[in-house]
Amino acid sequence: MTYSPNALIEQHFLRANDDAVVSANERSLLRLIWRHPGLSRSELTGLSDLTQQSVHRIVDTLAERGIVLLGEPKPGLGSGQPSPMLQLNGGFAYACGLSVTSDVIDISIVDLAGKTLAESSILLWDRGMRKSLDLVREELASHQQRLGLSQDRLFGVGFGIAGVHQGGTSYNASLPLHEWSLIELGPMLYEHFGKPVWTMNGAKMGTIAEIMFGVGRHIKNLAYLSFNYGFGGGLVSNGELLLGGHGNAGEFSQMYDHAENLRRPALQYLMERLQRNKVNVPSISYLRKNFDRDWQGVEEWVEEVTPAYNRLVNAIWAVYDPQAIVFGGQIPPDLAQMLVDRTEFFGRPRYGVSRPNPKLIISEIASDASSMGAAIMPLSRMFY
């Protein structure tokens, strides 16, 4: 039987006499409330295609279930019956996000309203997969106890891994994650955590974080560059993540041949360059937190990867034409700026007028984007 996290959602999260968490109309209203915090019920009606009566009925139902909170009347809306402000009830549900990279498992806990409740990480070192997951489960339990979070309110787990999607919940990851590769992760993780688990490539989890918490709230068509141990990304069209025919849209490293692959902007190669220059950078996490652009080898590496980087940016521009290209993943902001400063668009002006090029934006998500995206993914998939 094919693994499906939707079929494993616990009954108390579902609608009465239904197998859905919310209806299509409920989802559309919850999405508007997510995008417009502090929206009043009358303003919600104005943004929706539904009638006033339908909006009131649906909001009342969502409030009765505890998904939406009705606040104080919103001032300044003119005469008539006061309209309460609406907000998502973070206490209704929360989710845990895990991001497995070459050296660490990052953990994020996010509630239904999008509030980050906890963040931590587990170093992989030479631990096996099972031992690492045991430590993650202990860390999650510690967060739950400290924050007073009920296990019943844990909606599910989002799981991102730095690897290519092979099908189902199987991924082909880099050598440090060989034990996690080419196995069905979904059923194994469900058995381990006792909650439904949604899986996805880690770079796309980072893209989801950008959609939900970053520039994707305002820019609906973008390309996300995920600089990690490897290098990948994601594409966003009209606010939605594009998966492609096999779930691997945005695997930008696949455009390079064997020789070029060694000159793509993957942070593993920067770490190797730094180590050859006697700069002690033991992990990608350390690199992000302690980056110094004056380290011996940084400038040399940036110059080496610039041609491959520029070809990628222009390929994205030519094929996809996004409004923005976002620099995310685990790249230090100063390092991202060094690449931005070296960007060259190859487009040729016609009649003295150039084609509009995408904005280059360094992500402002300070937390681990992949684990943040993994945490919000189960909630966004099923609620809004």
TrEMBL record:
InterPro entries: ATPase_NBD (IPR043129), ROK (IPR000600), WH-like_DNA-bd_sf (IPR036388), WH_DNA-bd_sf (IPR036390). GO terms for biological process: N-acetylneuraminate catabolic process. GO terms for molecular function: N-acylmannosamine kinase activity. PANTHER family: N-ACETYLMANNOSAMINE KINASE, ROK (REPRESSOR, ORF, KINASE) FAMILY. This is ROK family protein.
